[in-house]
Amino acid sequence: MEVRHTTNPTDVKQYDTERLRQEFLIESLFEQDQIKMTYTHYDRMVVGGAVPVTKALELEAAATLKTEYFLERREIGFLNIGGPASISVDGETYELSKLEVLYVGKGKRQVLLSSLDAANPAKLYFCSALAHKEIATRKMTVEEANPSNLGSQETSNERILYKYIHADGIQSCQLMLGVTSLKTGSVWNTMPSHVHDRRMEAYLYFDMNDDARVFHMMGEPSQTRHLVVANEQAIISPPWSIHSGVGTSNYTFCWSMAGENYTFTDMDAVPASQLK
């Protein structure tokens, strides 16, 4: 498990490209028959990826967590972005197709991740946050995720928003998770931008061609920076930072949040005229 510490927005103004990528970009999440995890001190979220191919992979507590098992004091949300998956939670099995989500609450001891077809392995992206009570395990399909059409062709941001883990969907302690998919011909997301100082956010960009890139905008509104992101790479977004993106083509991303409050609409908009 890699550990990332929090950063001071005043110090970030002095970072060069290499340092920005070192602090905020997770470049490698999906490797065959491995579970890879990054622990960020921003709201103590764990961001990870798993690709079970020849064997089942068990979610185990790394020494960093100092707990007996991974979900002793945590909750977790899994999003499948690959082939059909199977997740066993204390002996109960859930099958996930692409873009289906499974929430597993605090207190579950054994979580096993498997692929149903080794020739088309699952790719399980997950985010985990601290939890204060036990909540029932629940699966949600993409059809159940309340798809909402947003944006327009005129502003190059026509997209579909899917909300899975949130106050009106899968219940959790503090974790929120969803997916946004841009339609062909649209490349901008979240513009005008916003910040939400009470919640950090993680982004996974996926369903991109190998040569495609997303320019992820970050930083304080008056001190913007950018990170060039490839397919299946993730971003750690601090609470004080904007998080917008523009791609060389359309793309899909998973957003997840953790923090003090549990209100999806609690955000402070930043008009484009105020960005620098």
Automatic annotation (TrEMBL):
Keyword Zinc carried by entry: yes
Gene Ontology MF, one: 4-deoxy-L-threo-5-hexosulose-uronate ketol-isomerase activity
The enzyme's E.C. designation: 5.3.1.17
Domain of life: Bacteria
Entry annotated with the keyword Zinc: yes
Catalytic activity: 5-dehydro-4-deoxy-D-glucuronate = 3-deoxy-D-glycero-2,5-hexodiulosonate
Pathway: Glycan metabolism; pectin degradation; 2-dehydro-3-deoxy-D-gluconate from pectin: step 4/5
InterPro entries reported in the protein's UniProt record: KduI, KduI/IolB_isomerase, KduI_N, RmlC-like_jellyroll, RmlC_Cupin_sf
Listed cofactors: Zn(2+)
Class of this enzyme: isomerase
Annotated cofactor note: Binds 1 zinc ion per subunit.
Binding, Zn(2+): 194, 196, 201, 243
Keyword annotations of the record: Isomerase, Metal-binding, Zinc
Function summary: Catalyzes the isomerization of 5-dehydro-4-deoxy-D-glucuronate to 3-deoxy-D-glycero-2,5-hexodiulosonate.
Family: Belongs to the KduI family.
Protein name: 4-deoxy-L-threo-5-hexosulose-uronate ketol-isomerase
Provenance organism: Paenibacillus harenae
Lineage: Bacteria, Bacillati, Bacillota, Bacilli, Bacillales
Originating gene: kduI
